[in-house]
C-alpha cells in the first residue's frame, strides 16, 4: 500500500485494538511524499543528463546549447502539467445548462509558461509523464485539456500520498485515456437512463401533484450506481449500505435496488409498507428504506437503504455505523473489502450540514473507520430556493472533503458515460486505498424542490434554460446514433417496453398487500416485539453465578507483571480486590465492569464509546490500563473468552458519534452498544439523532434498536452546563413503549439493567441518567449477593430504612442522586414516619408496583415528588399524572402528589456554589416537611424578590 503515512489511520494492517507506543506518536502527521514525485523532474542537472540520454536513444542529434534549451523546456512543460493537475478542473465542461462561467485560467495557457511561436511545435522531453517521452507543447496541451477539462474534472493534488495520486493519474492521463465503453455497455447505460426518466414521468402522470422529489435532470446517476454494484462485486464487495436524500430516492429504490414497482405504487396510493397488524406510525414513502439482493456476472450483492428523516444528512453516521457492524460480523474489519458504504447527498446539504464533516472527521479513526465511503453528490446547483453563492463560501459543495484528502471527481450529469466512468474509478480507488472518495455530479432539477413547487419565483433565468434543455436520454441517444451503436427506433422501443412493464406493475399494485415486516430477519432472528410491556420487563433473570462473579473479580484485579501501573490506579485496584474479598462495598464502576464482563463471557459483544470512555470522565472506569513507561495499554475485559469487548475514546462529536453507534446497534442486536456523553448536558449536540432515530425510528420505520445512552446527571454546584442531562426532554419523547428512561441509584441495579438490555428477547433504546458524585458515595454501594442469587433489576427501590407501611405518614418519591440527600437529612432530623422510595425506571413508568406499595400505606397523608431540577425541567410534569393514577388505583382517591424542588428556571442550574447549597438544603427540607416552608420556597425561587432601585408607584 505504499507510504505508511498515506492513510493516517491508527487502524493500520487491520489492527483495531490500542496502538503500541506513546499516544503522541500515533498521529499520522505530517504526511510526507516519497521519492519519484513530479518535483524530481525540475532539477536542471538531472534533466540535462536525462535529455541527452533520451535524445541519443531516440537518434536525435543535440548539442550543449540545445540540451540547455531542452532542459528549460522540460521544466516549463512539467509546470504546465502540474498546473493542469491542480487547476484543470476549473476549465472542465461540467454544467449541463452552460450557465457557469468557464474561463480558462491563465496558468493553463501555453504562453503563460513561455511557449509561443516556434516553441509551440518544438518537441519537449517529458520523461514518460502522461505516457510520453517527447511531445510538442501544442500536442501536450491538447492532451491535458482532454484529460482534465472535459466532462470530468478531477481534484486530487491535495492528496499527500504519491501512490494514490499516481493511481488516479494512470487512469486519466495520456493521449489514449478517453472514456470508452463497449457497444453493449453503452446500450445498458442508455437503458438505465431511460428507466430513470420514464419512471419519473409515469409517477408524475399517475400521481399528479404528489411529492416524489424526482430525479428529473439527474438520471445519469442510475447507470452510475449500477456500475458501483457491478465493478464493486468484481473487486470483493458483497454488501452495500446506502444512505441518501429525498431527491431521486424512489428512483434508486426501484431502478437500482430493485424494490418491486408494485410495492412503491401501493405506497403511493396510500397503502402501508408493512402489514396492518404490525403497528407503528409509518412514514412518507421518500423516507423509507429497503433491502434486496442483486446479481451481476454471477456475483450476488446484498444492498440496504437506511430509512431517514428530513434531516437528510443525519443518516450519514447511521450508515457508517451499520457498515462497521456488518464488517465486524463478516470479519471484514482488517480488509474493509466486503461491505461498502455509499452516501448520496444534495449539494446544499453536503456543503451546509456539519454532520458531513463529522463523518469525514472520524473516517480514519480507530473504531469508526469503515475503509472509505463512496460519496455521490447530486449537484442541483441550487438548494431549495438558495443559489450556491448564498449557500457556501467555497467554489464547490465538495470542498469539505479535502480536509481528509479525499479525491473529488466533478462530472457533467448530461454525460452518463462520464458519470458511470467516475463511479467505476471511484469504487476501484476505494477498494485499493480504503479511503473516502467523492463524485460531484453537476446536473439540474427539472422541477422545483418538489413537484408542487414553482422554482421560477426565485430562479427565473435558470428555469427558463431548463425548460428548453433536452432530456439526458435524448442527448445520449443522439450521440449513440451518430456513433452507430443504436438505430433510430432503439430508444423509443426501450421506452415502450419499460412503460408497458410499469403499467402492469401499476395494476398489480392496486391489489398488493404486504405479507410480512422485515425487521426481525437475519441477525435479528429470534427477537421480537415485547408481547406484554409489564411482564416482558419484569420476568428476566439477570443475576450471575458466584463462580462467574469470582472469576470476573480476578480478571478485574490482576495486574500483569509487565505493566507499570499508575500508583493511584494501583490503589483503586487494591480497593476493588478488597471488595471481592469482603463481598461488600461494590461501587458503580465495578458493577459496570461486572455487567460487561459477564455479557462477554456469555458470548455477547460490548461496544462502549464516548469522548473519555476508556478512563471515564470522572476517573471512575479505568477500562484501559496505561503503562506509565511506554504507554502500552492493557484492557482486562478483552482477555475474557467467547464475546468481544471494545472501548473507544471517540472524536469530540456528539451528533456524528451517536448516529454512528445507533447505526451499529441497528445492525447488531447481539452487541451491547453504549454511547457515553462527557457530561449529560452535551447530549443536546446530538438531539437530531435522539429525536428522529432513537425515539421515533421503531414507530416510523419498524427498526428496533438496543442502543444505550449513558448521560452523567446530577446537581452538585457545577453550573448550568454540567448538571442536567435534560431528563425532561427524554420523558417528553416517551410514548408507545418506544424507549426506556432510568435514573438509577444503586450499582447493583445498574448492573442488572445493563444485563437485562441483552437478555430479553427484544430491543429498546435505553437512556440512563448516570451519576457523578454517586460514583464514590459511601451510601451508593452494593453487596455481592445483589449480583448473584435471585437478584434482578428493580424498577422501584424500597427505602433503606425499614418503616412499617402503616406508620408511613409522608411518602417522598424521587429519582437519582437527591435520594441520598433526603436520607441523610431524614436521619439527621430523626424522622420516623417519612418513607423515601426511589423510582429507578421512569419510563415505562412502574405504576402497577407503585400502586401495590401505596395500597399498603393505610395512614398516608402526603405524597411528595422531590427533584433537584427546576420545576419545568426534570421528571415532575411527566410523573405527576402517573403518581396520581397510582394513588387512585391504590384507593387513595382525591390525593394528589405535591412538588418539592426548584422553581421554574430558564437556566438548568445555578453556577454559584453557595446558592446551590442553599437551594439543595431547601428542597430537601421542603420534601421532608421540616423547617419554614415559606423560607424554603423563597430560596428555591429563581426570580429576585428585591424591588428595583428608584421610586415605585
Automatic annotation (TrEMBL):
GO terms for biological process: tricarboxylic acid cycle. InterPro entries: 2oxoglutarate_DH_E1, DH_E1, KGD_C_sf, ODO-1/KGD_C, THDP-binding, Transketolase-like_Pyr-bd. Its cofactor is thiamine diphosphate. SMART domains: Transket_pyr. Keywords: Oxidoreductase, Thiamine pyrophosphate. One of its GO terms (molecular function) is thiamine pyrophosphate binding. Its EC number is 1.2.4.2. Residues 1-36, 934-953 are annotated as: Disordered. NCBIfam families: 2oxo_dh_E1 (TIGR00239), PRK09404.1 (NF006914), PRK12270.1 (NF008907). This is 2-oxoglutarate dehydrogenase E1 component. The lineage of its organism: Bacteria, Pseudomonadati, Pseudomonadota, Alphaproteobacteria, Sphingomonadales.
Amino acid at each position: 500500500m505504499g507510504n505508511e503515512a498515506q492513510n493516517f489511520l491508527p487502524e493500520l494492517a487491520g489492527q483495531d485494538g490500542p496502538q503500541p507506543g506513546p499516544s503522541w506518536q500515533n498521529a499520522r502527521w505530517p504526511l510526507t511524499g516519497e521519492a519519484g514525485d513530479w518535483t524530481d523532474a525540475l532539477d536542471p542537472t538531472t534533466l540535462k543528463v536525462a535529455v541527452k540520454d533520451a535524445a541519443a536513444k531516440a537518434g536525435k542529434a543535440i548539442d550543449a546549447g540545445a540540451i540547455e534549451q531542452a532542459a528549460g523546456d522540460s521544466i516549463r512543460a512539467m509546470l504546465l502539467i502540474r498546473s493542469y493537475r491542480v487547476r484543470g478542473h476549473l476549465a472542465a465542461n461540467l454544467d449541463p445548462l452552460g450557465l457557469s462561467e468557464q474561463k480558462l485560467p491563465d496558468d493553463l495557457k501555453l504562453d503563460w509558461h513561455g511557449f509561443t511561436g516556434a516553441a509551440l511545435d518544438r518537441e519537449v522531453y517529458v520523461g514518460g509523464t502522461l505516457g510520453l517521452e517527447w511531445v510538442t507543447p501544442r500536442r501536450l496541451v491538447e492532451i491535458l485539456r482532454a484529460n482534465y477539462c472535459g466532462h470530468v474534472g478531477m481534484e486530487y493534488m491535495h492528496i499527500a500520498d504519491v501512490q494514490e495520486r499516481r493511481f488516479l493519474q494512470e487512469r486519466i492521463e495520456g493521449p489514449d485515456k478517453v472514456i470508452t465503453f463497449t457497444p453493449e455497455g453503452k446500450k445498458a447505460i442508455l437503458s438505465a437512463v431511460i428507466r430513470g426518466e420514464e419512471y419519473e414521468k409515469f409517477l408524475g402522470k399517475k400521481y399528479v401533484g404528489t411529492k416524489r422529489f424526482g430525479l428529473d435532470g439527474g438520471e445519469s446517476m442510475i447507470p452510475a450506481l449500477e456500475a458501483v454494484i457491478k465493478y464493486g462485486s468484481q473487486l470483493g464487495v458483497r454488501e452495500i449500505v446506502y444512505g441518501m436524500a429525498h431527491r431521486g430516492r424512489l428512483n434508486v429504490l426501484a431502478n437500482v435496488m430493485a424494490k418491486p414497482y408494485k410495492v412503491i405504487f401501493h405506497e403511493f396510493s396510500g397503502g402501508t409498507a408493512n402489514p396492518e397488524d404490525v403497528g407503528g406510525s409509518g412514514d412518507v414513502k421518500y423516507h423509507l428504506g429497503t433491502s434486496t439482493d442483486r446479481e451481476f456476472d454471477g456475483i450476488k450483492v446484498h444492498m440496504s437503504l437506511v430509512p431517514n428523516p428530513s434531516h437528510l444528512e443525519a443518516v450519514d453516521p447511521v450508515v457508517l455505523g451499520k457498515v462497521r457492524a456488518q464488517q465486524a460480523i463478516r470479519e471484514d474489519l482488517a480488509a474493509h473489502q466486503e461491505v461498502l458504504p455509499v452516501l448520496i447527498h444534495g449539494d446544499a446539504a453536503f456543503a451546509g450540514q456539519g454532520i458531513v464533516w463529522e463523518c469525514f472527521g472520524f473516517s480514519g479513526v480507530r473504531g469508526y473507520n469503515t475503509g472509505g465511503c463512496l460519496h455521490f453528490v447530486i449537484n442541483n446547483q441550487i438548494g431549495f430556493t438558495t443559489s450556491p453563492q448564498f449557500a457556501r463560501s467555497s467554489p464547490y459543495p465538495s470542498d469539505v472533503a479535502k480536509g481528509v484528502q479525499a479525491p473529488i471527481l466533478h462530472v457533467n450529469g448530461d454525460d452518463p458515460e462520464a458519470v458511470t466512468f467516475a463511479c467505476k474509478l471511484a469504487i476501484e480507488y476505494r477498494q485499493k486505498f480504503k479511503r473516502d472518495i467523492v463524485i460531484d455530479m453537476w446536473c439540474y432539477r427539472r422541477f422545483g424542490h418538489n413537484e408542487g413547487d414553482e422554482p421560477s419565483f426565485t430562479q427565473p433565468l435558470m428555469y427558463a434554460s431548463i425548460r428548453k434543455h433536452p432530456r439526458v436520454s435524448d442527448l445520449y441517444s443522439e450521440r449513440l446514433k451518430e456513433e452507430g451503436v443504436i438505430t433510430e427506433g432503439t430508444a423509443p422501443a426501450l421506452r415502450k417496453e419499460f412503460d408497458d412493464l410499469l403499467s402492469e406493475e401499476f395494476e398489480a399494485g392496486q391489489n398488493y398487500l404486504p405479507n410480512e415486516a422485515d425487521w426481525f430477519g437475519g441477525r435479528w432472528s429470534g427477537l421480537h416485539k415485547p408481547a406484554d410491556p409489564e411482564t416482558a420487563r419484569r420476568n428476566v433473570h439477570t443475576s450471575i453465578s458466584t463462580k462467574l462473579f469470582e472469576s470476573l473479580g480476578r480478571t478485574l484485579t490482576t495486574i500483569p507483571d509487565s505493566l507499570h501501573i499508575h500508583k493511584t490506579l494501583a490503589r483503586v485496584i487494591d480497593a476493588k480486590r478488597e471488595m471481592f474479598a469482603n463481598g461488600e462495598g461494590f461501587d458503580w464502576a465495578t458493577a459496570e465492569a461486572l455487567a460487561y464482563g459477564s455479557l462477554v463471557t456469555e458470548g455477547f459483544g460490548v461496544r462502549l464509546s464516548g469522548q473519555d470512555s476508556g478512563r471515564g470522565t470522572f476517573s471512575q472506569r479505568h477500562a484501559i490500563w496505561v503503562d506509565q513507561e511506554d504507554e502500552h495499554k492493557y484492557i482486562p475485559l478483552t482477555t475474557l473468552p467467547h464475546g468481544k469487548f471494545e472501548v473507544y475514546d471517540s472524536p469530540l462529536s456528539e451528533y456524528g458519534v451517536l448516529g454512528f453507534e445507533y447505526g451499529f446497534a441497528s445492525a447488531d442486536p447481539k452487541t451491547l452498544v453504549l454511547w457515553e456523553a462527557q457530561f449529560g448536558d452535551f447530549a443536546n449536540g446530538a438531539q437530531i439523532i435522539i429525536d428522529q432515530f432513537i425515539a421515533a425510528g421503531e414507530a416510523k420505520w419498524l427498526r428496533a434498536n438496543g442502543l444505550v445512552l449513558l448521560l452523567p446527571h446530577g446537581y452538585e454546584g457545577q453550573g448550568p452546563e454540567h448538571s442536567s442531562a435534560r431528563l425532561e426532554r427524554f420523558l417528553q419523547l416517551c410514548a408507545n413503549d418506544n424507549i426506556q428512561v432510568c435514573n438509577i441509584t444503586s450499582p447493583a441495579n445498574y448492573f442488572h439493567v445493563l444485563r437485562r438490555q441483552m437478555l430479553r428477547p427484544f430491543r429498546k433504546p435505553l437512556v440512563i441518567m448516570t451519576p457523578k458524585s454517586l460514583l464514590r458515595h459511601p451510601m451508593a454501594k452494593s453487596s455481592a449477593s445483589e449480583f448473584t442469587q435471585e437478584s434482578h433489576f428493580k424498577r422501584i427501590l424500597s427505602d433503606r430504612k425499614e418503616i412499617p407501611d402503616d406508620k408511613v405518614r409522608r411518602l417522598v418519591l424521587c429519582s437519582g442522586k437527591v435520594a441520598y440527600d433526603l436520607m441523610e437529612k431524614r436521619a439527621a432530623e430523626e424522622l420516623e414516619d417519612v418513607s423515601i422510595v426511589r423510582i429507578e425506571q421512569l419510563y415505562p413508568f412502574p405504576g402497577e408496583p407503585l400502586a401495590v406499595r401505596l395500597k399498603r400505606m393505610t395512614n398516608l397523608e402526603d405524597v411528595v415528588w422531590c427533584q433537584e431540577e427546576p420545576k419545568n425541567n426534570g421528571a415532575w410534569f411527566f410523573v405527576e399524572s402517573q403518581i396520581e393514577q397510582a394513588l387512585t388505583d391504590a384507593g387513595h382517591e382525591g390525593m394528589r402528589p405535591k412538588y418539592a424542588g426548584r422553581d421554574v428556571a430558564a437556566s438548568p442550574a445555578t453556577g454559584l456554589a453557595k446558592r446551590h447549597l442553599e437551594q439543595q438544603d431547601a428542597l430537601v427540607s421542603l420534601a421532608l416537611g421540616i423547617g419554614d416552608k415559606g423560607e424554603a420556597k423563597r430560596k428555591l425561587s429563581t426570580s429576585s424578590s428585591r424591588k428595583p432601585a428608584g421610586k415605585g408607584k
